[in-house]
Amino acid sequence: MRCKKMVNVGRRQFLRGSAVAGVGAAATMMTGVQAHAATPGAQVDYPSTKLGNISDLTVNEPVDIEFPDADSPGVLLKMGEAVEGGAGPDSDIVAFSVLCPHKGWYMSYNSEDRTLNCPGHYSRFDAEAGGQQVWGHATQNLPQFTLRIDDKGDIYAEGASDLIFGRPSNVL
Amino acid sequence: MAYKRQIDRLPIPPADAKVHNVTCHYCIVGCGYKAYTWPRNKQGTTTENAFGIDLGEQQPADGTWIAPSMYNMVQQDGQDVHLAVVPDHDCVVNSGLASIRGARMAENRPSRVTGTQQQRLSDPLVWRNGVWQPTTWNDALDLVARVTARIVTEGSEDDLVVSMFDHGGSAGGYENTWGTGKLYFDSMKIKNCRIHNRPAYNSEVHSSRDMGVDELNYSYSDYEITDTIVMVGANPLETQTNAFLNHMVPGMLNGARFIMVDPRRSVTVNACEEVAGTENVLHLAIKPGTDMALFNTLLTYIVDQGWTDDAFIANSTFQGGEAVGEGSGQPAGLGSLDFAMQDIRTALSEGAEICGVAEADIVKAAEWIAKPKDDGSRRKCVTGYEKGIIWGNDNYRTIGAVVNLSLATGNIGREGTGCCRMGGHQEGYYRPSDAHVGRPATYVDQLLIRGGGKIHHVWACDHYKTTLNAAQFKRVHKRRSDMVKDAMDAAAGGSREQLVDAIVSAVNAGGLFVVDVDIIHSQIGQNAHVVLPACEANEMNLTSMNGERRLRLSERYMDPFGNSKPDCLIAAGVAQHMESVLREMGNDAYADQFKGYDWSSEEDAFMDGYNQGNPEVTYDRLRAMGNNGVQEPVTGFENGALIGTPRLYTDGVFTRHGREDGKALFLAAGWRGWQAPGKAQEEANHEFWINNVRANIFWQNQFLDQDNDFVQDRFPYPFIEMNGDDMARLGISTGDLIEISNGNGATQGMAYPTDTAKPGQVAMVFGSPAGSQGNVVNPGVNELVLPDYKHTWGNIRKLADAPPQAKAISFKSKEYTA
């Protein structure tokens, strides 16, 4: 009945390693000439991440994605008709985080009514209505990824509408 | 458009952030939270922070996370501080779970920095020259006291009508019920009073208490070790969310079966089927209002099968026939099981016919509740009930029928059992005796409608949204209070004495002087002449107990907004001004009754009230008990800890009725159809049953949620769940605005197509500021003035096409589908 928790040990180990490297780099900088901190942006800087190509998508068939990093699973969908936040020539391509913003359980896509459903506590979100929570315990709608589609039909994620579960910043 | 916060980063609480114990101030469950506060110019890092975990890593499911709704910037000791209110993993109530209500506590705090909840009242307001002018406490309280003192001395205290909350959490709690209670039940003896959600001052569960059974007798842990959970007119996944998720779900995973008695299929039924499998869930979708017939049929069948707990009945229940006769304050007789069965006895076929469910399903329910296991041991059963029968047909007798079944099967006072109301707010009642109010109590709404009463003091009640017969009530209340506004306007430029004279003349001519104490300027507050600003839990220290009698101190972590105050200190201010005005009037004896309010803090009110009856309990000791608190009654203090009572009646001695024999009583009553006047005729004359329901996203009448973008984006209009065929027949499309009307009035909402809604039955959300369901509820009450909000019938028509806001939202099924 209950699915496994999302984040596996391997991914956590990988992240722990990179965090240590970051601290080391900062320490190195402190010993050099006095540095002026760059003015931080009002929004965090997201990596521009290629999710796929329009030609790879089939209407109502979910594609697993990871954005802004490998520990943040999401879903890429072509809905077949224009929807809220939809990108592409038909304004019908959307992408969302699939970590439930209630308690971070991994959600599954129900292609019948085009919702994302959380097995943890039964929350559900509407992929055709900007990720609005249809019913549930989360206090925000589903983080929707900002998409850019280039001339070749390549789909890039470059931002998110809401904070992703389990992190103080969408880009860790 | 789905509401997007456009927040992609939050401040991190530093390791030295202040940590405060918080009990969620919304529903009865009272989940534990920790509030972290830290200076505006400080922050933690991913590695050095208040949680002591590496926030540079993605946290796993159920891990610690500050959602944007859990964050705000508020004032603490006059300084702007960061605030994060995060669910507490170590609290046994919720084990780190947060509901859609509690997880928004922080963002529902007033903040001049982030702009949240600017609807909160910051200063007293007095009606002056056509507007409410902000003023000082002294000015406002002086006017309240001068008018009140004149009226109650020239007439009597019966001319003062009081509406006052009786609950815990929110702005209630032991401090504030004591402050208001001392003012109106000790300094005065006000009998024309009512409670926030019903038109009289009475219990919602008189019969359970008369039978000897306190309505909150179990521990939530009993759900985890029971064999069968029975819910009657309750929807715990939505309204007691973490009692369901953190206690009932584990119970089902441990093998418990679930019986739901509710005409409507709710998301609770859906979730139970997911957890336990459909074969272990029985939804008895009875005809509206027939719960009593169902429980009488179940008890008859169980008695006839010999499945009663005879030892328990012999030892713990009354044996001598009739104990208490039916009377004016007693809508049914009480006595032994044999005595009660004379009225209760209902054949299976008759019960099935009345309730509209299959005989086999009633038998199945009886087996799940009481049929001994193969090894001969008894099944354990927990029963929970709430508004479906509390605000339902024949309140007294129906609740009695439910408690009867639990008593007859020995399911009270033992592990894995209980028979409890599920509850709305938390509890926090400590007041002087209300015996002078009488039983039945005054039907206050009707008193006001008839022109009775001259002053109306309103404490955190908004009858515009939450009373029955609301259309008529509002018309009369507005007309009478407008008479006083007109008189005040006409006295412009005069002295205080001339103003008071003008008000007194107006109320003697049929007007009503209204004082409204609230945290916002409510709908009924539009009729007020003086508005007094109160604060809430965590803007003050506040004590309450939850649905398993768990008492906690929810600590103050921020300042009251503006010049608002705790209700107990407002009540003290009223009393002090009454004393001085009465002394000025030369009425020293009466003035002396208003002594004893020398409180400088809410803790003083707590010590003056609750502590006097419970001397072991102090703020310091409760603070030390943390978010797990202590379950009432508190019996002692040992080794630095308060000693509580996890479960009532473990000794089999029942005391709630005050009888010396300690024996529980059975309630003797048979089914009698619609009890309240006018219901049967209304049903016959209208097409739709208008069910009055709740949704997890809203807290009560949305007093804070009406200013919460996330909530209002989801439901810009009150939803009315409706069957698709009914909609098609009436030419109603998804999201259309529709009107419900009957002889009582009309209300309006938004059609939400719902597959599981039965034809001819709609479900409208209760208490919405944008459409009061109470407008169409008739004035019918039971013998003890308990309203039957749940049974209302009306006709429906389309008002307008779905407006843009409604068109933009999701109308998909609320039921989880993997």
Automatic annotation (TrEMBL), chain A:
Residues 60-156 form the Rieske domain. It is an enzyme of class 1 (oxidoreductase). It comes from the Bacteria. Transmembrane segments: none annotated. Residues 1-37 form the signal peptide. This is Arsenite oxidase subunit AioB. InterPro entries: AioB/IdrB_ssu (IPR014067), Rieske_2Fe-2S (IPR017941), Rieske_2Fe-2S_sf (IPR036922), TAT_signal (IPR006311), TAT_signal_bac_arc (IPR019546). The gene is aioB. It holds the Pfam family Rieske. Keywords: 2Fe-2S, Iron, Iron-sulfur, Metal-binding, Oxidoreductase, Signal. Its EC number is 1.20.9.1. GO terms for molecular function: 2 iron, 2 sulfur cluster binding; arsenate reductase (azurin) activity; metal ion binding.
From TrEMBL, chain B:
InterPro entries: AioA/IdrA_3Fe-4S, AioA/IdrA_lsu, Asp_de-COase-like_dom_sf, MoPterin_dinucl-bd_dom, Mopterin_OxRdtase, Prok_molybdopt-oxidoreductase. Residues 120-574 form the Molybdopterin oxidoreductase domain. It comes from the Bacteria. Residues 688-784 form the Molybdopterin dinucleotide-binding domain. Keywords: Iron, Iron-sulfur, Metal-binding, Oxidoreductase. Residues 24-116 form the Arsenite oxidase subunit AioA/Iodate reductase subunit IdrA 3Fe-4S cluster domain. GO terms for cellular component: membrane; oxidoreductase complex. It is an enzyme of class 1 (oxidoreductase). Pfam families: Molybdopterin, Molydop_binding, Rieske_3. GO terms for molecular function: arsenate reductase (azurin) activity; iron-sulfur cluster binding; metal ion binding; molybdopterin cofactor binding; NADH dehydrogenase activity. GO terms for biological process: respiratory electron transport chain. Its EC number is 1.20.9.1. This is Arsenite oxidase subunit AioA. It comes from Thalassovita gelatinovora (Thalassobius gelatinovorus). The gene is aioA.
